[in-house]
């Protein structure tokens, strides 16, 4: 099986490069949609134009678009304008290569491998879109929910379909009601609608008892992040400061995956 690992990693790097396009262009598409501008579909937005520098808009040559290697060769800067290219491009490519290789080594040549690659890839895309733009696009959150339910129905995951359905509903409505109470008191949203759907997908993926564990872990991660930001910025965040919650939910979901499928057993007594 290790014979096929190198092409699997290369395939992961290629897909990671495409995911960077998705992460950058999907919020642009959504902003245009919100402003009711005439534009093409999301698929066309992703397919055209060819890759370009986000600073100077110069078309990127193929030899400057090789995953990881081109970024390293250019020392993280555009060949034309010399502006910095985000390290996120490398991170996403490496993460996707890891997702492909891990899934392949864990599940071999099977539909299960394709399933987990698709699911993890959606989480990577959602993580970085929300981290950079505060968007959690419906296309990806609904796909996550659908994959979780299909995986349960086909017995790819370890969650019964009834538990998956209940988990999805509880995941959505728990944050919905928390946000309702917060909005009633402070007159502003505490969570975005995308957070409801993301937690619904994670609840469907890991079952309804996991919802409260995921909320607890993500809240702790968020508080740690706020404390670190306050410490290093030497100023307190305001109550109305925006902080994307999606990445913390996703990190908590990955902890649940490790606990459930890698047998960490940290929360076994509660599930």
Largest sheet: none
Helix content: 55-70%
Beta-strand percentage range: under 5%
Along the chain, the helix and strand elements come as HHHHHHHHHH
Total separate domains: 2
Count of DSSP H/I helices: 10
Helix-strand makeup class: mainly alpha
Apparent shape: globular
Instruction: Measure the end-to-end span.
Output: 34 Å
Round the mean pLDDT to the nearest integer and report it.
89
- Radius of gyration equals 20 Å
Number of strands: 0
Any low-confidence stretches, pLDDT <50, length ≥5? none
Kindly describe this structure.
With 271 residues, the protein is mainly alpha-helical. It has two domains: 1-109, no CATH class; 136-271, no CATH class. It contains ten helices and no strands. Helix 5 (111-133) runs antiparallel to helix 6 (138-153) and helix 8 (193-206) packs across helix 9. The chain starts with a helix and ends in a 10-residue tail after the last helix. The model has no long low-confidence stretch (mean pLDDT 89).
Brief write-up:
The chain has 271 residues and is mainly α. It folds into two domains: 1-109, no CATH class; 136-271, no CATH class.
């Amino acid at each position: 099986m290790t014979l096929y690992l190198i092409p699997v990693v290369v395939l992961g790097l290629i897909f990671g490069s495409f995911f960077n396009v998705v992460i950058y262009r999907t919020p642009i598409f959504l902003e245009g949609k919100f402003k009711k501008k005439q534009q093409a579909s999301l698929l066309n937005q992703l397919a055209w134009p060819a890759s370009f520098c986000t600073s100077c808009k110069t078309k990127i040559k193929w030899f400057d678009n090789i995953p990881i290697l081109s970024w390293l060769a250019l020392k993280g800067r555009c060949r034309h304008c010399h502006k910095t290219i985000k390290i996120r491009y490398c991170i996403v490519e490496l993460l996707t290569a890891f997702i492909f290789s891990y899934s392949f080594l864990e599940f071999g040549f099977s539909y299960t491998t394709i399933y987990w690659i698709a699911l993890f890839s959606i989480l990577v895309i959602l993580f970085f879109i929300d981290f950079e733009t505060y968007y959690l696009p419906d296309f990806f959150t609904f796909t996550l929910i659908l994959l979780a339910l299909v995986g349960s129905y086909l017995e790819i995951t370890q969650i019964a379909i009834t538990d998956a359905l209940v988990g999805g509903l509880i995941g959505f409505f728990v944050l919905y009601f928390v946000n309702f109470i917060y909005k009633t008191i402070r007159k502003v949203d505490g969570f975005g609608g995308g957070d409801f759907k993301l937690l619904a997908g994670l609840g469907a993926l890991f079952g309804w008892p996991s919802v409260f564990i995921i909320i607890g872990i993500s809240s702790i991660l968020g508080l740690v992040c706020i404390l670190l930001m306050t410490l290093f910025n030497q100023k307190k965040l305001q109550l109305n400061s925006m902080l994307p919650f999606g990445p913390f939910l996703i990190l908590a979901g990955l902890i649940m995956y490790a606990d459930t499928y890698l047998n960490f057993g940290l929360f076994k007594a509660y599930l």
